[in-house]
Amino acid sequence: MIASTLGRGFLRATFSLIIVGLLVTAAAQARAQVAVKGVLKNYADIAHAGYEDSLLTAQKLQTAIEAFLAKPNDKTHLAAKNAWIAARVPYQQTEAYRFGNPVVDDWEGKVNAWPLDEGLIDYVAKSYGTESDENELYVANVIASSDIKIGGQKIDVPKITKSLLKKVLHEAGEIEANVATGYHAVEFLLWGQDLNGTDAGAGKRPPTDYDLKNCTNGNCARRAEYLRVVTDLLIDDLKWIVAQWAPDGPARKELLAGPEAAGLTRIFTGLGSLSYGELAGERMQLGLLINDPEEEHDCFSDNTHNSHYYDQLGIQNVYLGRYKRVDGSTVSGPSPSDLVKAKSPDVDKALRARLEDTLAAMSTMVKRAETVEAYDQMIGEGNKEGNAVVQAAIDALLGQTKAIERAVATLDLKAIEFEGSDSLDNPEKVKG
After folding, report:
1. Which of 9, 105, 275, 331 is deepest in the core (most CB within 10 A)?
2. 10 Å Cβ neighbour count for 407?
């Protein structure tokens, strides 16, 4: 009887433990599901905040530009240029949302396409040349023209309008260098060409290019019209992307309604592609390989060092699930880091370390740009110290990408193909 009682007690205890174990497992699975949904929601919240900040700073840029056009002088010109640089800070941090999110990648070319053939827009120096076998609009100079030809067809352009810029000129002839809209078109109109090569100095457009009474280089009223219209169009495009990520926005809804694994794949596709092919490759390694000062992202303003730094900060923001807004407040919540850490603290720790290493390398580059020489000088031929600073940042990005790949494997996500770059994958092709 004693043995039988003990057996029944043991069975009851074992059964109870099994039930508890099943409940714990079910609870853990439920928590995991909630955690992923929370990560995706916070990812969308950060996107909305970043694009909203981009819009707010672009509106401040617009105000500064209007003040400049009303009274073009050195002071108002500098204020407009400083407002452009400030507007780049939040926008560059949103670039981690490209590649993984088609709605962002398809839209991005309207606001951040580069490099651009500036002769499409305005006057250029003789050294720019007079024609291009690849682009019939290479020196179209729409600001100085009442009509242009595209594909042999004459098009009257009596006024600079949004429709002209976005529907006729931007990427006309399916040529990506025909950039008529976005931040870099505004940048060119504020700074003008950077004709310094690897010598010090950014673009030196005089404020009198917009002075209707003391006009330099002709067409000042039409140039002002272009600057005003392209800035207004930038505002329109940013309003559109803000709405996409709003609480009831279609991009947010689509992300949250889809499979959770697909949402995480989007996040890591964005992180890895920006880290590897876009930033390490096209924006940095390419220019360093061919030592071309024109191969820099913010080439007219010499602001490239900051653009690269804030791209990296944006990558870190997304992985850690936090973003510091321009007003000083912070958006934060469940993060991809939390998910990776739950499965492998070592993998998460390693990726966090690589993110910090890259940010430190970018900071070194920023410090050099602010105290020694601009980015276009750093990548110049024969500049061993400058080249080394840029290469260190590239190497850090490559190490970071490998750590991102390990995080992808840890989360058991399907193989993700990050954006590539010939400058990394086939450098001889680039050099040749």
Report:
1. 275
2. 26
Residues 84/112, Cβ–Cβ less than 8 Å: no
Place of tokens 């920023």: 366
For the CA atoms of 172, 178, 179, 185, the dihedral, rounded to the nearest 10 degrees, stands at: -130
In 12-106, DSSP assigns E strands to: none
Query: Quick one: what percent of the chain has pLDDT higher than 70?
Result: 92
Which sign, positive or negative, has the C-alpha torsion 52, 282, 100, 250? Answer: positive
Stretch (H or E) spanning 155: strand 153-156
Q: Which residues contact 306 (CB under 8 A, 6 or more apart)?
A: 85, 88, 89, 92, 298, 366, 369
CB 283 within 8 A of CB 297: yes
Q: pLDDT (tens digit, 9 = 90+) per residue, 355-405?
A: 999 999 999 999 999 999 999 999 999 999 999 999 999 999 999 999 999
**Residue 123: which of 149, 145, 91, 155 has the closest Cα?**
145
SS3 181: coil
Distances in Å between the alpha carbon of 77 and those of 47, 68, 186, 335?
Answer: 31, 6, 13, 41
- CA 228, CA 72: separation in Å to the nearest integer? 13
Cβ-based burial of 49 (10 A; exposed 0-12, middle 13-18, buried ≥19): buried
User: Could you tell me which residues are beta bridge partners of residue 54?
Assistant: none
Which ranges in 192-219 belong to alpha helices (H)? Answer: none
- Beta bridge mates, 95: none
Alpha helices by DSSP H, listed for 245-327, are 250-257, 260-273, 286-290, 304-320
**Cα distance between residue 194 and residue 400, in whole Å:** 32
Put simply, whether the predicted model's pTM sits higher than 0.85 gets the answer: yes
Pick the closest to residue 206 from 114, 180, 87, 218 (CA basis). 218
Element (H, E) at 90: helix 74-93
Helix (H) or strand (E) holding 150: strand 147-150
